[in-house]
Design brief:
Blueprint (H helix, E strand, L loop, with lengths): L2 H33 L11 H27 L2
Helix pairs in contact: 1-2
């Protein structure tokens, strides 16, 4: 397989892995929050904090992915 044909396949694989990981983290966080399994007074009982722990790294990965994509395919 040529490098040109491999790049879109790798990109799709990375994006799929990212999306599966993100959705899994969001679902687990939401279910855990709704079940009320956190102890009172613990910062994990705060849905905004838990969502930030998921969304900030996700945003960082997307930003890095943007720059990597531009490096591979250029402008």
């Amino acid at each position: 397989m040529s490098q040109i044909g491999l790049q879109p396949l790798l990109m799709l694989g990375c994006l799929l892995l990212f999306l599966v990981s993100l959705v899994t983290l969001l679902v687990v966080t939401w279910r855990r929050h709704r079940a009320g399994k956190q102890a009172d007074g613990n910062f994990h009982s705060s849905l905004p904090v838990e969502m930030a722990w998921v969304l900030v790294p996700a945003l960082m990965v997307l930003v890095l992915l943007w720059f990597i994509t531009r490096a591979f395919w250029g402008d």
